[in-house]
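Message: Study each token:
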Amino acid sequence: MSETPRRHTIIGFEPEFDTKKCLEVLQNWRLSDNSDSVRCALEIVCMVHLGLVDDFNLIKIFEDSVSSTRELFFGNRWDPTLCPQDGKWFKPFTSALLLLLLHNDPDEIVKLASWCRVDLDPGFSGPENPPEMASLYLIVASSLLPNQIPGIDDRIAEVSKARERATQGLWKIWQAIESGDQGAFEKTLTDSLKHFDSRPKPNNRSTFIGERIARHQSVLALVAMQRGLRLPELPEKLSARLLTRKSIGLE
């Protein structure tokens, strides 16, 4: 296997921590019986993407993530009827969806999407994570199902009025995907990645690897490619922010 591209250098991320130790901790935590296992799996995938780990076999990561996702959302640990109150579904759901899209597992993607309900409360608010972001993911999930989620039109109306720039950019990408407009998809994805790249990132001591990856844009790009759209020719730095099957050696 060839050496993984050093995308972390391209985006200006030179870790000021022991990456081998970080990987070991993530692996141990991923294999523990805890609700953070899916997030830890995604962190490892992000490490591979950025070139912080060489010759790492991701097959086991993805296989375990399928089991973890089933347990989190359909096992005894989670009761979907409680989620609107506890507001803890958004981060594990978005991590699981990104992993399943990267794994390219249509049945599991549909199964996860079927868990969603239109009245799910994201449990957060603020400029970095406005409530419209959760609505966007419910819209995406609805599109992955044979029949749309009942009441999803209200969520569509909510996102279409979003005022936060990042959410507006993601919504424009989604509109281009829905219309199958290759030119609009290329422009909106590029613009959204530029905006993501311009925003402050964690310092080099932070071990939250995934915060440096455009995860929302990556989810939309993977859905777009499933629908036959092509990624634009991106500048090297923007491409390094985007997580794809090719970037982690699956294609």
Remarks:
- DSSP finds 13 helices and no strands in the chain.
- The chain has a mean pLDDT of 89.
- The radius of gyration is 17 Å.
